[in-house]
């Protein structure tokens, strides 16, 4: 059987330092504390398959006995020895590295080569101080010397694009050159903001912004073929997970609500980091609904009922357009998409124009990044969201197929004395036409 590398990410309580501005884990409320039995069960389950190299990551220090009790640490190395694992990588902080613990581990690792991963992040003491690291470059060097003295390997984590770094590429090159002289391997990680970290708040406040994939690999271009360097752009990349203390109800038909920072962060995520599921070949833009999440509204329930009867349903990417901008169906229940209201009766002509302009820009940026075989829409023809979508597609010279039967729509309005019924998009005749045109344009 072919042996492989396996990475285990384990929740083992708070890091003893926990102040680094990019760290979210140690700032979360209700963090689960370490349990020897739980850690054993997790390890036993992971080692049921043949593994050559094991990376055991616990967001802090493997040598901190509050995170990894000594009883489990001993069990861990015994298990690795008996499982035929050749190499193990664990994380540690310099303050937990000492002669006694290294001697103890050395005695237990009869068959396994152990490497310790040190999060240096950047070889610059001024930046380390500003990002609230617990140690400086000299401490890192002393720790490396001690680890090597006892025959352990060293892996160094570096981060690109940290706050307070003016020349990202130059800083990275300096740090990599330094780390390669000290380490057996170097991991370059794209700095990304997570909910409870101060860095996330900096992103929301536009004091800092992460690198996208192209920017990251451009900065790391020099190291893509270096066998001692690994590049990690999106291994732990996630959607914007707002911590509870930042969440709020965003209400009002105002410029402040339309351009809210929480909406902007999400739109940046959709434009720069979001990957459309590969099965989604066709974009279908839909209106929002007052009830949140949208799929619980009567309008969306009826639209979904019809869509689910189409053979190519799974290929259709449903995307709502509303005050926050672009909202793919798979994110409709996330904050802030379930925590806003835009009272249409408060709209002025001025805010309607601003809504169209802002929304058009958001749609354009999204469609510039994400390509589909065809683009469909189902809106009331006078809807500001539809006008913004139509104008965006026209400027991008991208065909837009409207699934609303305009003639039928006008007839229904006429029957209602020129007024548009609230549930007009769920009229049976309009939905019949909607499905017919959609089926005709999709390759089953």
Count of helix runs: 15
Shape: elongated
- Looking at CATH, which topology of the largest domain would you report? TIM Barrel
- Supply the CATH architecture of the largest domain: Alpha-Beta Barrel
Strand content: 15-25%
Order of helices and strands: EHEHEHEHHEHEHHEEHHEHEEEHEHEHH
Average pLDDT taken over every residue: 94
In whole angstroms, the N-to-C terminal distance is 41 Å
* Largest sheet strand order: 1-2-3-4-5-6-7
Rg (CA only): 27 Å
Class by SSE composition: alpha/beta
- Under CATH at level 1, the class of the largest domain stands as Alpha Beta
Count of discrete domains: 2
Helix proportion: 25-40%
Describe, in plain words, how this protein is organized in 3D.
By secondary structure, the chain is an alpha/beta fold. It folds into 2 domains: 229 residues, Aldolase class I (TIM Barrel); 198 residues, 3-Layer(aba) Sandwich (Rossmann fold). It contains 15 helices and 14 strands. The protein has a 7-stranded parallel β-sheet. The chain has a 5-stranded mixed β-sheet with strand order 11-10-9-13-14. Helix 2 links the parallel strand 2 and strand 3. It is elongated. The relative contact order is 0.07.
Layout of strands and helices, then pairs:
Elements: E1 4-9, H1 36-46, E2 51-57, H2 70-82, E3 87-92, H3 99-108, E4 113-121, H4 125-130, H5 137-149, E5 153-160, H6 168-182, E6 185-190, H7 198-204, H8 213-219, E7 229-232, E8 250-251, H9 255-258, H10 261-272, E9 282-287, H11 298-307, E10 316-322, E11 325-328, E12 340-341, H12 349-369, E13 374-377, H13 384-396, E14 401-402, H14 406-415, H15 428-441
Parallel strand pairs: 1-2, 2-3, 3-4, 4-5, 5-6, 6-7, 8-12, 9-10, 9-13, 13-14
Antiparallel strand pairs: 10-11
